């Protein structure tokens, strides 16, 4: 049976470890110049309703390095841009390609695509989750800290799709996640309860300082995501005081490291000194999108 990756919880703890270990191996092979064309002859359709830098480049390059082929499909260039139902696109794509990655505005679109496809479907981002990003984050944290169980991770900022996946991932990793968001922008309570019901360690904090206390990792994201531009001034006012800066890092553990999925807006959710400083793992994190997603593709497609 085909396996989809729509949520970080679509994989088990064992499968997560296999993917991360596979990513570490593929990263070593790439750096050593060792060919690893594990998906030769396979193809990946990449459907983009939203613009992208890291998701587009990493999946396309990753599929190439695995010996396969990736097709960039802008929604406006497909018949879904003219009203074709996503279920029909799913049925046709299933006859042509080996898997589909979709970056969509609504999670329901991703779910409908998966329900009607007979090939694996990967959520490259939706309004509910960004599970591929969290795979890269887990890989990055494990590279730096080794054993990640019981590590303290603070999320500071918008309780958005990336935050949702991080919260849910606590049930798989054993990391303790604390979330601090302004009122009205919190992570959905049902997602916190879902993570806790599966053994995840998730708490909320009223201030960034409380969340960052003794944290090994601080994670943030843009305050104004795609589709939120009309609320820019409102959001800037609401998120005042939630900037990840040197002052906030003083509340964390001495070996604290910072993650940001990018794009970053220096001076808003994070200062330039932190983003480009020695405590930042952001550029390793960005690179690791490539390695983590290659391992995911191999896991889903390699027989």
Which short descriptors sum up this protein?
alpha/beta; five-stranded parallel β-sheet; 303 residues; 2 domains; Rossmann fold; 12 helices
Explain how this protein is built:
The chain is of the alpha/beta class. It folds into two domains: 8-130 and 289-301, Rossmann fold, CATH 3.40.50.1370; 131-285, Rossmann fold (3-Layer(aba) Sandwich). 43% of the residues lie in helices and 15% in strands. It is built from twelve helices and nine strands. The chain has helices spanning 13-32, 54-65, 86-96, 107-116, 131-145, 161-173, 189-197, 208-212, 232-238, 246-249, 272-275, 282-301, and strands spanning 43-48, 69-74, 99-103, 121-125, 152-156, 176-180, 201-205, 217-220, 257-260. Strands 7-6-5-8-9 form a five-stranded parallel β-sheet. It is globular, with a radius of gyration of 19 Å. The chain starts with 12 loop residues before the first helix and ends with a helix. The mean pLDDT is 97.
Topology of helices and strands:
Layout: H1 13-32, E1 43-48, H2 54-65, E2 69-74, H3 86-96, E3 99-103, H4 107-116, E4 121-125, H5 131-145, E5 152-156, H6 161-173, E6 176-180, H7 189-197, E7 201-205, H8 208-212, E8 217-220, H9 232-238, H10 246-249, E9 257-260, H11 272-275, H12 282-301
Parallel strand pairs: 1-2, 1-3, 3-4, 5-6, 5-8, 6-7, 8-9
Helix pairs in contact: 1-5, 1-12, 2-12, 3-4, 5-6, 5-12, 6-7
């Amino acid at each position: 049976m085909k396996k989809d990756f729509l949520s970080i919880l679509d994989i088990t703890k064992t499968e997560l470890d296999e993917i991360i270990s596979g990513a570490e191996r593929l990263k070593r092979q790439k750096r050593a110049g060792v060919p690893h064309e594990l998906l030769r002859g396979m193809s990946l359709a990449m459907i983009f309703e939203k613009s992208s830098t890291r998701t587009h480049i990493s999946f396309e390059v990753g599929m190439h390095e695995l010996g396969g082929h990736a097709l960039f499909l802008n929604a406006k260039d497909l018949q879904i841009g003219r009203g074709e139902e996503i279920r029909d696109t799913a049925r046709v794509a299933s006859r042509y390609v080996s898997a589909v990655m979709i970056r969509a505005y609504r999670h329901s679109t991703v779910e409908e695509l998966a329900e009607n496809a007979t090939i694996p479907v990967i959520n490259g981002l939706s309004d509910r989750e960004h599970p591929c990003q969290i795979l890269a984050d887990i890989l990055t944290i494990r590279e730096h800290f080794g054993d990640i169980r019981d590590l303290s991770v603070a999320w500071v900022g918008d309780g958005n799709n990336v935050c949702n996946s991080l919260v849910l991932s606590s049930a798989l990793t054993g990391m303790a996640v604390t979330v601090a968001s302004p009122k009205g922008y919190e992570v959905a309570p049902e997602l916190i309860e879902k993570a806790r019901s599966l053994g995840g360690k998730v708490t909320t904090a009223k201030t960034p300082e409380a969340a960052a206390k003794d944290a090994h990792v601080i994670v943030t994201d843009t305050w104004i995501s795609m589709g939120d531009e009309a609320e820019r001034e409102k959001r800037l006012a609401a998120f005042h005081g939630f900037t990840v800066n040197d002052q906030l890092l003083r509340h964390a553990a001495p070996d604290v490291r910072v993650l940001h999925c990018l794009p970053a807006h220096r001076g808003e959710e994070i200062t330039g000194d932190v983003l480009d400083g020695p405590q930042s793992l952001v550029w390793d994190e960005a690179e690791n999108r490539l390695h983590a997603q290659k391992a995911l593709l191999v896991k889903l497609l390699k027989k």
